Amino acid sequence: MTGMTSSARPFLNRRLAEFGTTIFAEMSALAMSTGSINLGQGFPDTDGPEEIREAAVRALRDGRGNQYPPGPGVPELRTAIAAHQKRHYGLSYDPDIEVLVTAGATEAIAAALLALLEPGDEVIALEPYYDSYAASIAMAGGTRVPVTLRPEEGTHDGVAHRRFRLDLDELRDAVTERTRLLLINTPHNPTGTVLTRAELTEIARIAVERDLLVVTDEVYEHLVFDDAEHVPLAGLPGMRERTVTIGSAGKTFSFTGWKVGWVTGTAQLVTAVRSAKQFLTYVASGPFQYAVAEALRLPDAYFTAFREDMLAKRNLLSAGLADAGFGAFRPAGTYFVTTDIRPLGESDGAAFCRSLPERAGVVAIPNAVFYDHKEAGAPYVRFAFCKRTEVLMDAAERLRKAFAH
Question: Is the pTM of this model over 0.85?
Answer without folding.
Answer: yes
